[in-house]
Amino acid sequence: MAQLEEVSVDQFKHLVSERALTGETMLLNMGPQHPSTHGVLRLLLELDGETIINTIPDIGYLHTGIEKNIEAKTYLKAEVMSDRLDYMNNMGNNLVYCMAVEKLVDLDVPERAVVIRVILAELERINSHLVWIGTFGLDLAAMSMFLYAFRERERILDIKELISGQRMMTTFIRPGGIWRDVPVEFEAAVRDFIKMLPKRIDEYEALLTKNPLFLDRLLGIGKLDPAVALQHGVTGPMLRASGVNWDLRKARPYLGYDQYDFTVPVRTEGDTYARYIVRVEEMRESLKIIEQALNKLPLGPVNSNNRKFVPPPRSELGVSMEALIHHFKLWTEGFPAPNASVYQAVESPRGELGVLLEGDGSAKPRRCHWRTPSFDNLSVLPKIVKGHLVADLVAILASVDIVLGDIDR
Amino acid sequence: MDKKLETIVQALQENFGVTFEEFRGEVHVFVKAENIVPALTLLRDKYDFELLSALTATDFWPQLSPRFHVVYQLTSLARNLSLQLRVPLEDSQPHIPTATGLYEVANWRERELLDMFGIIPDGHPDPRRILMPDGTDGHPLRKDFPLGYEEPQFTFNFDEIDLRKPYAKE
Prior knowledge:
The complex is a heterodimer. By secondary structure, chain A is mainly α. Chain A has 18 helices and eight strands. In chain A, α5 packs antiparallel against α17. In chain B, α1 packs antiparallel against α2.
């Protein structure tokens, strides 16, 4: 067991300025328990009055060892933990994990399951951005924004409950397809939601977009240069707000994203306001994708027919000996994967979410690394808050949109 | 293999004598540890691999030679290409030259390597643990590090187990 050591300032000597050692500037802890750090993130700030000179992020308070745990589970059982990583994008995590497994064992996915996956991934994107816009407003003292955004998010959680019985940790997307076909009420529920949301987004924009108090806090704050962003591995809306048009849905279309008509919002300012605009526009684009997907939703099976990887339907168990054997083998032993490595990336609400999955010939992976966007996006924070006030740090941190479960894994 | 990627792999072969593998359309290039920084420099400056998407490692224990593969997943936005570099490391020499001079994202990612695998990034500006608490023994993602568990407590043996449970000391 770890021996806890006294932390001395000597550890951070090389990270703060000379003036901190003489006591001229102040070292201040922000977090780990602070309402504006969106989780358990600790920031050690070096302050000259109210101006930030240095920021030292300290992460790991939410480290759960999921990567280690996945190595001890079979491919099907390990998926449950993927929900818990980025708890604002549960199905997006399921999606990238399942796509990695499918790539590793070369498994097909039926067309209907692919389209349902697109609808769910885009619903999750809206879900995540709604939570983001709510907490962003809350951090900037627009408290009603939080209540409105969570009201709409509740509808998405209801849809998730409708299809899977769970509101957050659904594990709905499975290797080879999805858990079950969606119920008949699904289409009407989603159509209701996408009809309602555009007006609500207009309402949010009426509250925030041209609000002078809001603009004062955001314009020109936390500027991120595109070259610096790429150096720090920043992806997603943050990168696109800095003028780099890079979206994996367009650049490397997966799930047939090339068949949908949507645009990728890009701004060139790179400040906190640009990140806000990009995310609001992304919600509108996601709605377009969902509508097109609903219109073309084909009928057919939702799971691959490959019984070596996908459990047979319950109804077959009573009548088919093979089905019973496959069911038993899959849930006790699991399926073996080749001794090889794949890297699969998708565009999550926060950026490039990648899984490096490495099999070793047995039923358990040798390594499952999660390339989580929040981790790299946070690493640029010390650069963009330099020279700003402590109050601006709150706005900048909110605009980065971090999820600590995603960072600490 | 993609035509564009083929010329890049050829350039790497001429300069550093690398070997490569292909699996499901992905190209994995095996580079020696002493060549990794020049190889990354070549890829970044000449072939526009401006984004280091992922930097991590794999442990092949009980195999000791090579024991680790350090994985560099590179992305080129301008050419829309992906390339994976892999550096095999011996158990006795878990050292890798730092890539922080080329990609600043390597700063945190190499701290994670140090923390999770005990792979030491030589020349790193800030070699501290990143996720685990300071003073942790061992490196959790190594295969010889036990997974560990917590003893479940019930009403009849709650206090008994509580006595030997490790808590953070004041």
